[in-house]
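Lab notebook, design round three. We kept the backbone fixed and only want residue identities now. Task for the bench partner: fill in a sequence for the structure below.
Input structure tokens:
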């Protein structure tokens, strides 16, 4: 049984820590690998990234596996959440062994952040090490293969896409070979996920099914509402879309990096414009290595690459559809579901 989310990749768990109210509108999401770690890589396309430990994932460097990936709000300040995850892993002896004592480990925890500062009203309300620990504890406490909460949770709590509320979304597929490919996305783009001419979500145009376009009156009403709220919410256009793409296929670090790179196409299908100088768009790729690729077929990776991009697109659509509206001291952002009710 699958849940159509990142946790369909066996061994991966997802936990959120969410802070709202009293000036807060932010949080942290942790993807926890199985013990022993997962092969990891990264590809950064945005011009303003906020990241930690991404150099360690370069295929030329020594680190092969990671125990967790952190996605967080709070811009560069929020990267402190990774410290809480590192401490939790160290306490359990999980990380790269650096001495004779089994307790001597250094957990490599790559992290990336989205810009959501001040969206709850308080610029200083942002994730810290305690937030990261809460998120990894939530991941560890979850059941294997558990559904992933989506929408305004974790790192997607304060997310915005254009002038519409963003959030967390996830999706998965099982290929004909039996290999699972999945994605989890924090949709927080400077660009828009909604076609201004029709009101349809860009990502839905690539989902391979018939698209239902909003009626003219519904779309006109939505545009009026957006114009009203946009006048009230003019934060700096500093955003970032983050994604973790994962598979149970046995990938090398270079193959994982290729997966991370092609998965950016999934963002480009669902967000317009994308990869701007004020975005920090970053995609991590994880491989748990449970299923071997066909060694006789040098192009066996292609199917996984295509599916990774598709899952990112679907996850962005789900993030925007699952998001709830926000109207508070930091600004007002309608949700897509509120604007186009019933669609």
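Proposed sequence:
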């Amino acid at each position: 049984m699958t849940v159509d989310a990142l946790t369909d990749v066996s061994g991966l768990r997802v936990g959120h820590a969410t802070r709202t109210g009293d000036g807060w509108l932010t949080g942290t999401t942790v993807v926890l690998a199985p013990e022993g770690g997962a092969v990891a890589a990264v590809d950064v396309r945005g011009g303003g990234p906020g990241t930690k430990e991404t150099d360690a994932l370069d295929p030329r460097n020594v680190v092969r596996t990671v125990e967790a990936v952190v996605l967080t709000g709070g811009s560069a300040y929020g990267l402190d959440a990774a410290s809480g995850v590192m401490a939790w892993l160290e306490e359990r002896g999980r990380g790269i062994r650096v001495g004779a004592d089994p307790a001597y480990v250094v957990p490599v925890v790559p992290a990336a952040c989205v810009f959501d500062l001040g969206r709850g009203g308080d610029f200083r309300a942002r994730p810290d090490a305690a937030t990261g620990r809460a998120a990894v504890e939530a991941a560890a406490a979850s059941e294997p293969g558990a559904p992933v909460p989506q929408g305004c949770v974790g790192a997607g709590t304060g997310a915005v896409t254009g002038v519409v509320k963003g959030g967390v979304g996830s999706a998965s597929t099982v290929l004909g070979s039996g290999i699972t490919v999945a994605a989890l996305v924090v949709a927080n783009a400077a660009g828009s996920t909604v076609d201004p001419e029709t009101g349809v979500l860009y990502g839905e145009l690539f989902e391979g099914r018939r698209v239902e376009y909003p009626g003219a009156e519904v779309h006109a009403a939505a545009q009026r509402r957006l114009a009203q709220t946009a006048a009230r919410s003019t934060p700096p256009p500093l955003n970032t879309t983050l994604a973790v793409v994962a598979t149970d296929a046995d990938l090398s670090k270079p193959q994982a990096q290729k997966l991370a790179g092609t998965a950016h196409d999934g963002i480009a299908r669902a967000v317009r414009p994308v990869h701007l100088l004020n975005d920090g768009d970053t995609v991590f790729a994880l491989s748990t290595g449970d299923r071997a690729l066909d060694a006789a077929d040098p192009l066996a990776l292609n199917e996984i690459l295509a599916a990774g991009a598709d899952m990112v697109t679907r996850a962005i659509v789900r993030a925007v559809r699952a998001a709830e509206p926000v109207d508070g001291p930091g600004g007002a952002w309608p949700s897509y579901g509120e604007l186009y009710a019933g669609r």
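Keep this in mind before ordering anything: Helices lie at 81-91, 129-141, 216-232, 253-270, 301-322, 336-339.
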